[in-house]
Specification:
Structural class: alpha+beta
Distance between the termini: 14 Å
Largest sheet: 7 strands, mixed
Order of helices and strands: EHHHEHHHEHEEEEHEHEEEEE
Shape: globular
Radius of gyration: 20 Å
Strand content: 15-25%
Amino acid sequence: MVTLNEETPVNGVRMSFAGVFGFICHHSKLERITYMISLFLRILFGVSKYNFIDHEICNSRNRKGYYIMGPTIDQYIVANCLYTIDEFNILYRGWDKPKLKIEADEKFNEMDITVRIGYPFKQNAHYTAGESARIKKAQKINHDLYIAQRDFKIEVKYLKNWISSANTRAASKNWSVFQQDFDWLMDEIDNDKAGKVAFVIGWFNCVDSFSQLIQLGTGNGAYPLADERKRRYFPFLEANKVPVYTKDLKYCYKKAYMELPLDLISSKYKGIYRCMFIGEEKDKFHFAIYF
């Protein structure tokens, strides 16, 4: 997939065969034709105005005007997520959802998932959990993984429930925690870090409704109306009735493994942000990747 970097200028022709070949192999016929026309015009005329595919089919943008070939952060993470899903499918084969729910809530935490995402990076992965507390006057570090070799920053959230005040396993993290991470990601992308930053959410496929794990309602209560602003962050969820209550939101597995644009309700964020839902109905674990 095409990305941007500071090694090869837009109006230069030092573009690797591997990068071109990779793009051709992983895109539709129309996108390949568009890309080859754009590449031909760059080589022939050497001007950046023919860089018209960057905002349409690329993961990355760079306002400095540089153009390179190479893998982006989402391509690495997708592979890592698939390894993790395969692991859990083997480990929990035959488990029903109630049994898996207890395992998910009692035996796993965020670091367990972060380590699995970072493991394929081997010694290149630096885990930043807790660094803000160790560094005096430091601001919160909004990423759990840093891959220096690629300058990748990855924030991870694991969805689970805790015992609530009503003594039921229904409590979940406040929405503000997720909003902070979404804001961090979009700020980074808007500051020319597209292709270098990602926010990953992971959870066990152990509940009947996604909203049991994350607060998507407009208020409190067992069955609140779905908050449209929050829904826009999860384009892989759908409902077949109006009005939409949180319990009505279901996974649209047809959208899995597709780059889904985020159509946000926001006066601040107007950039290009994407989401990919990783998982199938039979899988024991799901991911949502934002980049």
